[in-house]
Amino acid sequence: MTQAQLIAHYFSDSDNDNDMEIQPSIDNETLERKKKNRRKWIPLCTYSDKNDVIKKIKDGGIWSKTHTNITNEGKRTYYRCNRVKRRGKPCSDSIHVLHHSENECVTMYKTEDDHLHNESRSIGINQQSKEVICELFKMKIKSKRIPEILEEKSLPVPKKQQLSSYLISLRKTYYGASTISLGEIEAWCQRNSLIPDDDDKPWLLKYQIEYEDEINKDDDNDNGDHNDNDDDNK
């Protein structure tokens, strides 16, 4: 991985993040306005594998992809801070990655501005709340009691639907799926029908499983037998 100090700074128009190029036809007033609106991007680091950049962005958990520009240097993909609402006043801090056109390297850039918003927008259940919910689930605490305990611990309380979904995922993780197929039942019967070496271990003496197609086949055979008997009686 190459250190970012070797990469030059980059300027873009803050409105659409296009490259800044001084055109002869632009007057001084327009040029000054563009200079005020442009953003300075500071290179953070350069990666030889783009998957490393993607992982770093995902692990951060605060960046959402907005758009992509094709430049002479390569493709630039921009990300905004998702701690504020998309339609609200945007956070001045953002990042973008440059996929170099001349090689496979990827450089990550960051604006020189910091986060200016006071409140962060949480997504999903707070991690500390998740850990407490998991412990309460293992203790078989009723779901109605969980929000009260979180409040007592001064932890963020998730929405009712979020809590329900998380508890369902915990049940599946610790106890498996809530439904079972006929094939799974038959496999369980086969595993437990062998006589164990331990005399105190229970085992399945006999079982019978009939699938729907087999039942229908038996019914057809029975109907055929009845028809034959009717023909004989005639």
What key phrases describe this protein's structure?
38% helix; disordered N terminus; 234 residues; elongated; 7-stranded antiparallel β-sheet; 7 helices; N-terminal domain of TfIIb; 7 strands; alpha+beta
What value does the average pLDDT take?
Answer: 76
Q: Radius of gyration from the CA trace? A: 32 Å
Percent of residues in helices: 25-40%
* String of helices and strands: EEHEHEEEEHHHHH
> Can you identify the CATH superfamily of the largest domain?
WRKY domain
The percentage of residues in β strands lies in 15-25%
Could you tell me the CATH topology label of the largest domain.
Answer: N-terminal domain of TfIIb
Region (Disordered): 214-234
Biased composition (Basic and acidic residues): 223-234
Could you walk me through the main structural features you see in this protein, from its secondary elements to its overall organization?
38% of the residues lie in helices and 19% in strands. It contains seven helices and seven strands. The protein has helices at 28-37, 50-60, 127-138, 146-152, 160-175, 182-191, 212-233; strands at 2-3, 10-13, 38-47, 63-70, 74-81, 94-100, 106-111. Strands 1, 2, 3, 4, 5, 6 and 7 form a seven-stranded antiparallel β-sheet that branches. A hairpin with a 3-residue loop joins strand 4 and strand 5.
Care to give the gist of this entry?
By secondary structure, the chain is an alpha+beta fold.
Lay out the secondary structure:
Elements: E1 2-3, E2 10-13, H1 28-37, E3 38-47, H2 50-60, E4 63-70, E5 74-81, E6 94-100, E7 106-111, H3 127-138, H4 146-152, H5 160-175, H6 182-191, H7 212-233
Antiparallel strand pairs: 1-3, 2-3, 3-7, 4-5, 5-6, 6-7
Biased composition (Basic and acidic residues): 223-234
Region (Disordered): 214-234
